[in-house]
Design a protein that fits this description.
Two copies of one chain form a homodimer. Chain A folds into two domains: 160 residues, MoaB/Mog-like domain (Molybdenum Cofactor Biosythetic Enzyme, Chain A, 3-Layer(aba) Sandwich), CATH 3.40.980.10; 76 residues, Alpha-Beta Plaits (2-Layer Sandwich). Helix content of chain A is 36%, strand content 27%. The first copy, chain A, is built from nine helices and twelve strands. In chain A, the strands form three sheets. A six-stranded mixed β-sheet of chain A has the order 2-1-3-8-7-6, sandwiched between helices. In chain A, strands 10-11-9-12 form a four-stranded antiparallel β-sheet. In chain A, a hairpin with a 2-residue loop joins strand 7 and strand 8. Chain A starts with 9 loop residues before the first strand and ends with a strand. Chains A and B meet through helix 1, helix 2, strand 2, helix 6 and helix 8 of A and helix 1, helix 2, strand 2, helix 6 and helix 8 of B. Strand 2 of chain A pairs antiparallel with strand 2 of chain B.
Chain lengths: 255, 255
């Protein structure tokens, strides 16, 4: 596991809410985006869950996750229709009231005329008591943050601006540094050396990912750490291994 | 929720195992594939979790999920390297022994010469006691099924052949029928009518998914049921609504 140099790691879980993902109708685009975004902030994403638009299931997942991780992010289920139940589920999870928030209505007035603020649209201004709003410059219906739970839209473009809006409020961890090396040998050939390398560099996380390209198996080795020197030592150890074993290897582009 | 016409619904959870998904390095391709595959089999995917390559976390997730759903599918973590801990985690979850299985070695001999069956590769022949193998015609290291838990590779092509291999062993549910209609109005305008439609068709699941295209908001309405007549009634009700409200709408392609 990644060393955190004496400070506690900042961790997160992501709860994706949406029947459309579970039915296979829609390919989720938010998991990878949020995962990479949090990694750049030094926040370690430790778990993702996808559940249906069901108040009980959402509330249960939020309660399970918010006690284990620094932050819980949710996407989806905050629109104006009958199947948007995320805000109610969050209120249920925290056992607080939910009501139309004047500041949410004020935000929506930047886009909607009074006659367009229908009861359906005003559903999007309902937030659990104690929550603070997250700005949505695109479609104006806000997200919100309640304690360590951050509730965002499911539409990727809107989720992304909400994430930008909330990021300055979050604790940052130590940046996670990454190096990748591509080996043109199957994982099975690289395995003994990599196991030894991991044992001798416990504070660097060494992952091994097979790939299959042009009918040949290869292995990406990904090294991650928050300590640049320890990472460099492990990378040097990997190149020693490559040289001793006679593997063909190239440094891969790091994110 | 979808009606199951007197028979119990066949349900599933998917557990995706892989640090690379959580770090944002790799975009998962298996969730959507498995979701759509199970939907076609009439198996209702109810939850997805993504966890790191960590024995404790995998075991805890498997135990939480296998008691709630008909099946639990896992992807990832069954390769030959030090970070492949899924088989051990499953053994731990079920509190059974794990050992090299002769039939798994026999399967691997179809591809590997004896001198290539190194200790690292033989790790891939270790399966928990009581498991039955799932054939892998591509790279030969098998998946396995233990009670209601189905353990597959993470590499998409290999996962896909394993899913084909195990599918005939699984209970099928009533096929889930789907119709989609695209409305060229924002969700907020469609919401009241859709809420009424859902109330009057409780055995049809009516989902509403906003989209943003050419700078305009629109709404996909997705209707799902196992009973064709009830689905047809709800679709007719939707077209009535479209006509009464003067929406522009087109039937969308169904999966």
């Amino acid at each position: 596991m990644t060393a955190q140099q004496g400070s506690e790691p900042v961790t997160a879980a992501l709860l994706v809410i949406g029947e459309e993902i579970l039915s296979g109708r829609t390919r989720d685009e938010n998991i990878t985006y949020i995962a990479a975004y949090l990694t750049r902030m030094g926040i370690v994403l430790r778990e993702v869950r996808v559940v249906a638009d069901d108040e009980e299931e959402i509330a249960a997942a939020v309660n399970a996750l918010r006690r284990r991780f620094t932050y819980v992010f949710t996407t989806g289920g905050i629109g104006p229709t009958h199947d948007d139940v995320t805000a109610d589920a969050i209120a249920k999870a925290f056992e607080v009231e939910i009501a139309v928030a004047p500041d949410a209505v004020a935000a929506m007035r930047k886009r909607f005329e009074t006659e367009d603020l229908t009861p359906a649209r005003l559903r999007m201004a309902r937030v659990p008591k104690g929550a603070t709003l997250i700005d949505n410059p695109i479609s104006r219906a806000p997200g919100f943050m309640l304690e360590n739970v951050i509730v965002m839209a499911g539409v990727p473009r809107i989720m992304q601006v909400m994430l930008d809006a909330v990021a300055p409020r979050l604790a940052k961890g130590n940046p996670i540094l990454t190096r990748s090396v591509r080996l043109d040998v199957p994982e099975g050939d690289a395995a003994p050396g990599l196991a030894d390398l991991q044992s001798s560099h416990p504070e660097v996380q060494i992952g091994s990912y097979p790939f299959f390209e042009n009918k040949r198996l290869g292995t990406y080795v990904v090294l991650r750490a928050t300590d640049a020197d320890k990472l460099a030592d492990a990378v040097a150890g990997l190149w020693d291994l490559v040289s001793k074993q006679g593997f063909h290897a190239v440094a891969a582009v790091d994110e």
